[in-house]
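Need the bound structure for pyridoxal-5'-phosphate, inputs here:
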Amino acid sequence: MKNLDLLLHHPPSPLQTVEHEVFSERGLQLLVKRDDLLHPHVSGNKWRKLKHNLLEAQRLGLTRLVTFGGAYSNHLVAVAAAGLAFGFDTVGVVSGEPSSRGNTTLSFAKECRMDLVFTSRANMRDKPGPELLQLLGIETADALVLPQGGANCLALPGCRELVEETVAQLGHAPDYFIVPCGTGATLAGMHTGLSGSCQALGVAVLKGGFLQNEVEKLLAACGDKPTSNWKVLDSYHFGGYAKWTPELIGFINDFKEKTGIPLDPIYTGKAFFAAVDLAEKGFFPEGTSIVLVHTGGLQGIAGFNERFGNIVS
Ligand SMILES: Cc1ncc(COP(=O)(O)O)c(C=O)c1O
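Answer from helper R.:
Posting the output first, comments after.
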């Protein structure tokens, strides 16, 4: 295993002030926390969620990371790259169509020497965790097993650090953090670092309205008491996970042209769209400071463009 000091002593990701007319016309301060720049492949919230998991694996003397994901999973890529960078063997249990097995996401994971084990979507849904690993004959004695999306209690402290780091950079807490929400672990961890009147809004990228509950469940399971300074917004999923409309793609391309900041269509595109929409609708009073968390996921653009034609620039 290699030295994990880089994880402990990594410089803060940039907190970028962004000029965008929807915000400046309304007297709002817009900042983007560029966690996408933390690492080329262990990017965004994956870095935050994996940090304390990797430190724990090292502490326990474990040599392997075993995890789960879909065929385009940012989490799989991050675990594969983290394994290569920090000297862990990695195994990824992957669900999805056989036709997706050679896609850019999984090819990259293989280049990072991740062992890929394929299973059906039904298995992944019905038997997540140890039962599925047993079924597939995957040995876990020397492994840290990470759930899909890396959503466990050890993911929370790294996400709390994202909040603390931003407050230190800004010199005070912003009025709002806005972050995309998939499993809800990033929002849950951020919640533990909120202070004063600072609010966190999680933008659900899945349909179904269950994420508020999921975040509460995760906080309770991890021994944290939920407060009232956060909530999940359920009206910006664009039809569900990985669903999109031309309006969303137009927004992503326009945002990049205006600000130079690339967004992915699965997570950050939806969260940043929500922020602009809320600002246009007058949700934020004049003088409000808003930090959008760029959670990375840019590797997903190639797979998205592979499937839908080169529509995200
Ligand atoms: C780029 C990106 N943003 C946001 C999320 C959602 O994070 P969480 O699952 O912690 O809610 C994910 C999934 O991990 C992601 O890959």
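Comments: The chain has two domains: 5-40+154-308, 45-150. The domain at 45-150 is CATH 3.40.50.1100 (Rossmann fold).
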